[in-house]
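Replying to the earlier thread about multi-chain prediction with a worked example.

Input:
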Amino acid sequence: MPELPDVEVYRRRLAHGALRRPVDEVRVHDATLLEGVTAEALATRMVGRRLTGTARRGKHLFARVSGGDHLVLHFGMTGVLLTDDVEEEPPRHTRVAWTLRGGTRLLFVNQRKLGHVALTGDADDYCRRHDLGPDALDVDGPALRRLLGGHRGSVKALLMDQSAIAGLGNIYTDEVLFHARLDPRRPADGIDVREAARVHRQLHRVVRVAVDAGADPARLPRGWLLHAREQGAPCPRGNGEVARVRVGGRSTYFCRACQS
DNA sequence: ACCTATGTTATCGC
DNA sequence: GGCGATAACATAGG
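Result:
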């Protein structure tokens, strides 16, 4: 699930359901996902404190912890952030659980263990150390044009490069390029000004619509490519059929008739 | 047994 | 240094 729209949904979930209540317990069910912090240190630095605010940069979610720390959550390919009640049985693959005063519980659930849970004193510094570029929604037209012009690789590889633009993953990159009607294999520095404007416009539109739909595929428009990610599927725009190629090491779906 | 999968990182070769 | 390809991480499903 977790690309920018999904993580934004998690951020709002945390902001609306988990702030300002003291942390009563931190339970680490699987420490493999902890990055640079032990289970003991995570508990010591969080129990008795409160989450006081949220931020997101690309696919990384930050929650300010009273006392000066910031909780960092990264979801990998299969992570989700849920809230439930302490009385309930936590779902399978729950890796870390925070019990909050009043009985709400925050759950970091991750089937494949590719994500991270960390603590940092400085979120910007964390982003620098992890080479995170600006959030995709903060990249304006001229900045995007500069990025495109500076890369000889494919436009898809650039859009997925988190050090260039943070937030787009495999699914939404394909979606943006489908709506911008560009072949994902096109060299980024060969994209002209009009095409770059389409990428910028569609990037913002696709992300906004996805966030408004709660990043729930079932609620995303019928005409979107993500419903047709299968070789030979009819193109959602009714032209050709969907092709599958490999770009930047990832399965890439696009319509040869619509995208050039 | 094989392939695939919404992510990231290290390594090798050009 | 940039870029593509590949494997690795860990797990599940077809």
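The mean pLDDT of chain A is 96.

Feel free to reuse this layout for your own posts.
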